[in-house]
Automatic annotation (TrEMBL):
<comment type="similarity">
    <text>Belongs to the Toll-like receptor family.</text>
</comment>
<feature type="domain" description="TIR">
    <location>
        <begin position="657"/>
        <end position="814"/>
    </location>
</feature>
<feature type="signal peptide">
    <location>
        <begin position="1"/>
        <end position="22"/>
    </location>
</feature>
<feature type="disulfide bond">
    <location>
        <begin position="359"/>
        <end position="388"/>
    </location>
</feature>
<keyword id="KW-0391">Immunity</keyword>
<dbReference type="InterPro" id="IPR032675">
    <property type="entry name" value="LRR_dom_sf"/>
</dbReference>
<keyword id="KW-0732">Signal</keyword>
<dbReference type="InterPro" id="IPR035897">
    <property type="entry name" value="Toll_tir_struct_dom_sf"/>
</dbReference>
<keyword id="KW-0395">Inflammatory response</keyword>
<feature type="disulfide bond">
    <location>
        <begin position="440"/>
        <end position="462"/>
    </location>
</feature>
<keyword id="KW-1133">Transmembrane helix</keyword>
<dbReference type="GO" id="GO:0004888">
    <property type="term" value="F:transmembrane signaling receptor activity"/>
</dbReference>
<dbReference type="GO" id="GO:0045087">
    <property type="term" value="P:innate immune response"/>
</dbReference>
<dbReference type="GO" id="GO:0002224">
    <property type="term" value="P:toll-like receptor signaling pathway"/>
</dbReference>
<dbReference type="Pfam" id="PF13516">
    <property type="entry name" value="LRR_6"/>
</dbReference>
<dbReference type="Pfam" id="PF00560">
    <property type="entry name" value="LRR_1"/>
</dbReference>
<comment type="function">
    <text>Cooperates with LY96 to mediate the innate immune response to bacterial lipoproteins and other microbial cell wall components. Cooperates with TLR1 or TLR6 to mediate the innate immune response to bacterial lipoproteins or lipopeptides. Acts via MYD88 and TRAF6, leading to NF-kappa-B activation, cytokine secretion and the inflammatory response.</text>
</comment>
Amino acid sequence: MGQLSSLHHFLFLLFLFSLCWGQRTNQDTGRPSCNRCDRRLSCDCSRGGFTRVPMVTDRALTLDLSFNNITEVTDVDLTGHEQLRALSLHGNRLVVIDPSAFNSLWSLEELDLSDNQLTALDPRWFSKLGALQQLNLLNNPYSCIGSAPVFDGLVRLRRLAFGGPALREIQRGALSGVSQLEELTVHANNLTRYESGALAYVWPLGRVTLSLHGPFLTDRALASSVLADVSYPETPMVLEDLYLIGNESVKPFYETAKRRVRYITFRNLFISDETIVRLLVVVNGVPVISFIVDNVTLTGEGRWERANWTDHRAVDEFVVRNVVVLDVFKFVSFLQLQFLLQYPRKVSVINSKAFVLPCPTSSLLMNLQYFDLSDNLLTDMTLTETLCNGNGTLKDLRVLNVSGNALKSLSTVSRLVTKLRKLTHLDISRTDYSFMPQSCPWPSTLRHLNISGAKLTTVTPCLPTTLEVLDLSNNDLKDFTVALPSLRELHLSGNKFLRLPPGNLFLNLQALTIQSNTLNMFDRSDLQSYKRLSNLQAGQNKFVCSCDFVAFLQSTIKGDGDVQLTDGEESYVCDSPLYLQGEQVGQVHLSVVVCHRVLFVSVSCGVALFVGVLLCILLWRLHAFWYIKMTWAWLKAKHSSRRRQRLRDDPSSDALLTFDAFVSYSERDATWVENFLVPELEEPSEAGENSMNPRPLQPLTLCLHKRDFLPGQWIVDNIMSAMERSRRTVFILSENFVQSDWCRYELDFSHFWLFDGDAGGDPAILILLEPLSKDDIPKRFCKLRKLMSSTTYLEWPQEEERREEFWRSLRNALRGGEEDD
């Protein structure tokens, strides 16, 4: 019974396993797939309309599933992705995440679950994510955080973002388990309850971003508690979405002042003159180094001089970006703000619709070293006023950025900066410069010049020879002919260059960027002209993929040579020929036929000639020419066979048969033919005494090649003609006959003519001058060998008394079997 119970238990477990496996298989079967993975194993499945987590390769390192319609992540959706480093589910409709959904993601370092519909955070989601470094939980409808130790165990977490419009409460255990962070972001615009110390567990804290719109308006004590927990002197603080109107609205900043926070950034700020004055008073004496305001709306008139008694000498950087002044025509001059402007070394007024900074105001910037007026409304005239007509007022200025303004005269800006004796960086990009004069004055200290995004068509010696970095990207340049011996970096992307600029113009150039031009190709000699070039970015051009260019670029991609292509091999794509268009140069494989056409033709012709010669020799050795020749003769014989048969059968055609016999013999046997055969058959003597036939013998007419063949004709034609005009064919067989080339050809053709059943030929008459076996006959004459085995032949007797009988038999054979009387 115990064994039976164990068996039942085993079968039950097996059934459960099969059921679970079947369910898992069914789940996987219904899932869509995503194949948008690159060679770096980064899979971009965003905006694919997926409603479930799609199947991707389990070797993926990053997986982007953002902006889909996924509502649930099951326990098997991400199984097998142990190598995954980054996962984004941002912008879906996630409502449910299985507690074990992420358990297999042991290597996950980045997880983004922001902008979904998660109403609660489950600590079990992150319990196995020991390698997690970055977690984004923003903009989900959970209302409380800290009721459970959500982040407990995430000891490697360095970037954390949580909160959203629905967040109402942050409890003391919110960051339990988090030891240190490089960046903390909390969106709590509607926060109503905060337990003091909830965010104070983290140290060190690299940067903190807080959105506290509601608390600053309605519960400033709560806002003060939050600021108190995250304020550290060296921790930059970013405060977003603040509406500061009235003195009460700045009370929470007493906490930051008390803890002497040195880096403060306001983003999306609405503020009045009164509040600015009060804020300056609150931070009086506090060593605030950096003061940044991004997207600010000013409601007042700029009357802040009431705070001129405060001390802000520690301010080193002042940045204003995207400023809106509600009543710009009432805004007063900054001449009363010397107490603020005399200290900063870095001042930026970016995209604020500023059209001029009067010279008296500029003169207040006595310590200025970095001045950024980019993306404003400056013109050549107002810039002249701002820089005090180039009189060198800003004597310590090192960096000047006036990019994105309506500047048109390059000579004007060069004149204005000539007396800035410490200027090293000048950015005049995205302007309306279309002409470069032949010469321009520049400060001798200038090292970095940016004129990208203008409308320049030519380059002249106006450029300072002291430059080390020059950016001329996105102009209309076609060539570069100015020598800049000190230049280390040159940026020429987005122009119309057909070839690389001459390297001998840049003796110290180390980095060249020339992407998105009209380059067709470049080679090793082009790069060798640059003596010190080590980094090149030349992708996104219209490359002609010739054999030399492909071979050179592929070797360069592999690291051969001193120059490295730092923009990646995927940037180098063929534009022509048409069949390679769109192919990456690094993946192109050109055949030998394409790359070495002359060599290929030469080798092919040589090989063909060699094979032809070899084949001819082989055919000669195998008597193939004879077979071809005899085939042709056979075809001719077939054509004339009926005519020959008619001639033989028609008695009236005897006149056309000129000879009684065609004689084939060897030259070495000519003596016997001439001394015995011809006299005996063509010149017969009267009957002898012993002759039983008293009548004289009728002479026979023989066809001999030496005597009767027409000179100049092909031997086969002579043989065919002789045989057509002869009643019989006589072969004088001997060792000489077999070894003779001439006789062999005659015999070869006669073999074709006489012994082919279709030709209708009569059997030949064979005369053996000496004993000769059929084995002495060439094997290719199989019918002749067979004939010698089956047909009686005449042998030339050595005894003289037997010769009379030999001649009588021969005459009978030639006359078709008639007996002499």
